[in-house]
Each structure stands twice: as C-alpha cells, then as structure tokens.
Amino acid sequence: MDGHLRRLGLEERWDFVACADGDPSIAKPSPHLYLTALDAIGAGPHEAIALEDSPNGIRAAKLAGLFCVAVPNPVTVHLDLGEADLVVDSLAELPLEALLREVRQVSDSPIR
C-alpha cells in the first residue's frame, strides 16, 4: 500500500493507513482493519463512512458498524453489493454534500 501511495504522490494525504499485509486473520471480511483505523483516528463507527467495492469489504465495514457506500469497479460490478447502505456507479454522481445528506437521512450518524 505504501509503495502505491508514494508512486501516486499521495502518501502525505493520509493520517493513518491500515492494511492486512498478507495476514488473512485480519483481512476483510474481518472488521479488524476498520476498527484499527477508527481507534487510530479517535473516531466511532457513527463518525465515519466506508467506501467499498466488494462484498467482503462491505461486510467488514458493516461488522465494524460503519455506514457503507459501495462503488463497484469493473471486476465487482456484477457481484451482490446489497449489504451496502448505498450503491452508486461512481463517486462523481455523489458529491460529498449529497453523500452527507444521505447519511444523515438514513442513519443516526452525527456526521456533519
């Protein structure tokens, strides 16, 4: 993950990065990585939004208690992403303000 972020010039845009690094016991659909990230940034599950592209990622987010937006990629577009709270074809169709309105309407999230 770090190598990809460096290659893209994005490594300094993140406060915290969590990944399984080959450890299947913490890989999705386990909620471990989401719970670790929430703890690292001092946030509760109702203060964050997960963006996922696969059933395992969605399951992990939901097990961690997060509102989850599914944004399928060309490989996962035909998979069942129905566990997500919201499914969109592209984040371009859901600007941040619209996403936050949606989260507020369908959950008890304090996200503002």
Give a short summary of the structure:
The chain has 112 residues and is α/β, with parallel strands linked by helices. The protein has helices at residues 2-7, 32-41, 55-63, 96-106; strands at residues 49-52, 67-70, 86-87.
List keywords for this structure.
alpha/beta; 4 helices; 32% helix; 112 residues; three-stranded parallel beta sheet; 3 strands
Structure description:
- The radius of gyration is 14 Å and the shape is globular.
- β1, α3 and β2 form a beta-alpha-beta unit.
- The protein has one domain (2-106): Rossmann fold (3-Layer(aba) Sandwich), CATH 3.40.50.
- The chain has 112 residues and is α/β, with parallel strands linked by helices.
- Helices cover 32% and strands 9% of the residues.
- It has helices at residues 2-7, 32-41, 55-63, 96-106; strands at residues 49-52, 67-70, 86-87.
- The chain is built from 4 helices and 3 strands.
- Strands 1-2-3 form a 3-stranded parallel β-sheet, covered by helices on one side.
